Amino acid sequence: MTDELTLAEVETLARAAHEGQTDKAGRPYAEHLRAVAEGVRARGGDDDQIAAAWLHDSVEDDALSAQWLEEAALSRRTKDIVLAVTKRAGEPPEAYAGRILATAGALLVKQADLAHNADPARLAVLDEATRNRLTEKYARMRALLGLGRESG
User: Fold this and answer.
1) Which end of the chain, N or C, is less surrounded by CB atoms within 10 Å?
2) DSSP structure class, residue 27
3) 28-8-54 Cα angle (round to 5)
């Protein structure tokens, strides 16, 4: 295998893959990716986890294919973390949480993802029904993962 992609290269790839996509609040999706990567870094994550944070939604959102990920010049650990945090169609939340907990390094990435998703400032711009649904969904996933309440 050739040299692994640098974090800057992974960031560039992730931003390009999600180009034109927006989050539920209408913000550029790359802002979410950056926030999760920064959240992983702030929580003491290593380069494999930071790379996975940049790519954490790429397969799930069909921005990049699973085959691309498998063939990419990334560490096996980064690939495993991305696959662990990729939700599968029809998968029960318990199975999803179990895979994250069983994959070394994945919990920190999901923790940063949940923290940004549940940020009150992000949720505040959504309609009440959506805000309530997402708040419940994120709280349930935090509980399944054994994560306490967290701000930021």
Assistant:
1) N
2) -
3) 45
Alpha-carbon distances, residue 73 vs 7, 11, 13, 68, 107 (angstroms): 11, 14, 12, 10, 23
- DSSP notation for 72-136: SSS-HHHHHHHHHHS--TT--HHHHHHHHHHSTTHHHHHHHHHHHHT-HHHHTTS-HHHHHHHHH
Indicate the pTM of the whole model.
0.94
Distance CA 138, CA 151 (A): 13
What angle do helix axes 47-55 and 106-117 make, rounded to 10 degrees?
50
Rg (CA), the chain: 15
Is residue 150 helix, strand or coil? coil
Over residues 23-53, the pLDDT tens digits come to 988 899 999 999 999 999 999 999 999 999 9
- Matching residue, tokens 């179990």: 98
C-alpha distances (whole Å) from 42 to each of 14, 19, 86, 109, 149 are 20, 25, 22, 11, 17
Find residue 28's DSSP bridge partners. 22
Query: Residue 58, Cβ neighbours under 10 Å: how many?
Result: 22
